[in-house]
Amino acid sequence: MTPPRSAFGAPPMDPQGPFHGPGGNASSPAEPDPRRSLGELPLVQKRGLLLGVRGWTAVVAALALLTVVIPVLNRVVTDGNVFHVSDYAVGLTGKILCYAICALAMDLIWGYTGILSLGHGLFFALGGYGMGMYLMRQIGRDGNYKSDLPDFMVFLNWKELPWTWAWSDSFAAQMLLVVAVPGLLALVFGWFAFRSRIKGVYFSIITQAMTFAAMLLFFRNETGFGGNNGFTDFKRILNLPIATPSTRITLFILTGATLVGFYLLARAIVNSKYGRVLQAIRDAETRVMFTGYNPLAYKLSIWTLSAVMCAVAGALYVPQVGIINPSEMSPAAGIEIAIWAAVGGRATLIGPIVGAFFVNGAKSWFTVAFPEFWLYFLGALFIAVTLFLPQGIAGLFRRFSGETREKHS
Q: What angle do CA 214, 217, 222 make, to 5 degrees?
């Protein structure tokens, strides 16, 4: 029999509450089940990063595929061979890997904490802009105007770099800002929002409003971020030509390793005591407060972490795609991240990654074969998943694998 679902699509940890013990209730914890208490978790919660044999095999296989197999098929296997992976395929897959990191971040806050954000496109774009500023400085005098200033600044008759570009020639400093700026923004925004107990659709609306306001700000030329054109025409990264196949495949390997690393981090979080509290907040935040826990610190920390993950994804995205502009922080971009998580399956970690590949793979094909029908397909897909596959692709796979085991038992 299918267990009951919570309001956010994931099964509650206990039919009578996340901290309920046998023969007791939330107000009488005299006889708690030691396996259900937060002090001593069930075996599945205590494993941490121990995924089991099949889990670790899948992780190692994915890591080998992304860091060894695909690079070898691209750089060693000759063009024309059936096993050759083209530069286009590497670039497209690298871009989707960045999207998958965003989907994973969305799963941590939506699938496991019950916080639906429509503003994570902003954090993704801020990370991209942080990397883009460094790449623009790496152009040097190779630009169209042969100036130390970026071309768009020369065109706008700027005479010197604004203060926001003070550290832009340092890779280490810019990578620090890639993490610090989105993280600080998420921390401040989350503090006021969660402290005011804004939740549900109201929280989703204000995150989208924040993203829209930031997009309008970045469209303005006087902000010093390239206006509607953004940053493009990159030449080098760490003084290495950015367009060479070896640099491209290195960025691909780094992105794949980062995705696997974030997946292991997310798995460790959700399997820990901290992750169990997050799931309890998702299912019954009021009851969590009654048991003496303050949800603010938990929600704020996971919200900030997910924002930083998106920022790192944006920083990896820009050198592979070759452009960053305000359209990356449009409200539609934030909604798409939520769609990837919903299609793949919330509260599964692997599901949103699969959803990112499925949706963006379909987008790549549709926009070439039937460009005018892509948005109709995306809308129909989201409606179909909501109505018929509330657990997403991962839930569908789980159901079929369960039925298969029952037939063989």
A: 150
Centre a 10 Å sphere on the Cβ of residue 184 and count the other Cβ atoms it contains.
13
Using a 10 angstrom Cβ sphere, with 0-12 exposed, 13-18 middle and 19 or more buried, the burial of residue 66 is buried
DSSP string, 8-58: TSS--SSTT-TT--TT-BTTBTTS--TTTSSSS--HHHHTTT--HHHHHHH
Interacting residues of 88 by C-beta distance below 8 A, sequence separation 6+ = none
| Structure confidence by residue, pLDDT tens digits, 234-255 | 999 999 999 999 999 999 999 9
The CA distance from 176 to 244, in Å, is 26
Distances (CA, A) of 231 to 125, 324, 399: 12, 5, 46
Tens digits of residue pLDDT in 115-166: 999 999 999 999 999 999 999 999 999 999 999 999 999 999 999 999 999 9
Cα 128 from Cα 215, distance rounded (Å): 13
84 — phi, psi (to 5°)? -70, 135
* 53, 249, 360, 383, 407 from 111: Cα distances, Å: 25, 32, 20, 18, 30
Do the Cβ atoms of 253 and 63 come closer than 8 Å?
Answer: no
Q: Which of 216, 231, 230 is nearest to 330 (CA)?
A: 216
Cα-Cα-Cα-Cα dihedral sign, residues 4, 6, 12, 16: negative
Q: What is the rounded CA–CA span in Å between residue 154 and residue 145?
A: 7
HSE at residue 319, side-chain half, CA atoms within 13 A, is 30
Query: For the residues of 261-294, what is the DSSP string, one character each?
Result: HHHHHHHHHHTSHHHHHHHHHHHHHHHHHHTT--
pLDDT grade for 167, boundaries at 50, 70 and 90? very high
CB 208 within 8 A of CB 116: no
Q: Please report the pLDDT score of residue 43 as a whole number.
A: 34
Residues 6+ apart with CB under 8 A from 390: 5, 9
Residue 337 phi/psi, 5-degree rounding, is -60, -40
Angle among Cα 257, 318, 124 to the nearest 5 degrees reads: 80
Residue 400's pLDDT is what? 82
